[in-house]
Amino acid sequence: MGWSVIPVGEDKKPLVKWKPYQERLPTEDEVRRWFGERVAEEDYPLAGIALICGSVSGGVYALDVDPRNGGTLEGKSLPGGPHSRTLHDGGGHYFFSSDIRLAKRQGILPGVDFQGERSIVVLPPPTPGYTWLEEPAGELPELPTWVIKAHRHP
After folding, report:
1. Which segments constitute the DNA primase/polymerase bifunctional N-terminal domain (predicted)?
2. pLDDT tens digit string along 69-80?
3. What distance lies between CA 124 and its chain's CA centroid?
């Protein structure tokens, strides 16, 4: 898919220094070491997976909806596309693509954050507590115009 991914623990914290992966994709060897069979003490075969959003991952961005803080996308138009669900609180992530570089912004709507350039989003399996409701397949839908407007004019 061309996404920059890193290993994370159950606490969602990166298990590697991840700044380099904000600029480049991990190598195949790095991905194997992180997520493949354990061959050395520093390997992380039981790690969860996090996506680094933004241009490094081909313009992938996400809306992070937290219903515990009043987050909902009810009444907002959303194209069909991949989204995940956080099993413990009913929140979720909605994934989109855009050629426009946008920074991370909290509260573009009540309880809804925009995961922009250089931010991370925990992905479903194998990360505990996350599941795909619709898995990524092919191209992601374009970031809706209302999200861009809300991002620019909070």
Report:
1. 1-147
2. 999 988 888 888
3. 10
Cα of 28 vs its chain's centroid, Å: 20
Distance between CA 56 and CA 5 in Å, rounded? 10
Q: What CA–CA distances, in Å, run from 126 to 7, 130, 148?
A: 10, 8, 31
Mean pLDDT of 103-127: 93
Which 3 state secondary structure label does DSSP give 35? helix
CA distance 127 to 115: 18
Long-range (24+ apart) CB contacts under 8 A made by 29-35 are 31/5, 34/6, 34/7, 35/7
Look at residues 144, 132, 143, 123 and name the one whose alpha carbon lies nearest to residue 6: 123
Question: Cα 52–60–23 angle (5° rounding)?
Answer: 45
